[in-house]
Amino acid sequence: MKAKRRRASRRGSSELSSGDGKGDLGEPPPTRPTVGTNLTDIVAHRKITIRELGGCMSPIWSSYYGNCHSLLFMMDASNPTQLSASCMQLLGLLSAEELAKASVLILFNKIDLPSYMTVEEIKSLMRLPDIIACAKQNITTVEISARNGTGLATVLLWLRNQHRHSS
Known about the structure:
25% of the residues lie in helices and 25% in strands.
């Protein structure tokens, strides 16, 4: 399967100036579930290439660990029924020796949709504080909405900071 390549350019410090995620990023791109793998380039002082792998691709995730400096793990905050499967996938990633030095950003997506559990309840149920305390990696969490753009400026800042430290 051929990967799709998109180029997103975010120029100027004013777009990424707010640490609270409220910077002017323009309209968020259209969203769709990942089936297979997608490549996206983001320019934030330097080019950062993001390889997006869907959850259904988890059996082959390990073949992509080699060049991974940072890991973004997205969880659907509107669907707590996927919580146990997502938690198992996260634990598998965190236990991979090749990812021991990678920084991890856990994204709780779809916070704009109604759910019968809050993100705090989800974090508690999956025992995220214990996972973070025991992990070798530096783990950060952020609540986002890919649909309306909430939290995306924070994600870009995190990526830029991680890329700066790994270069």
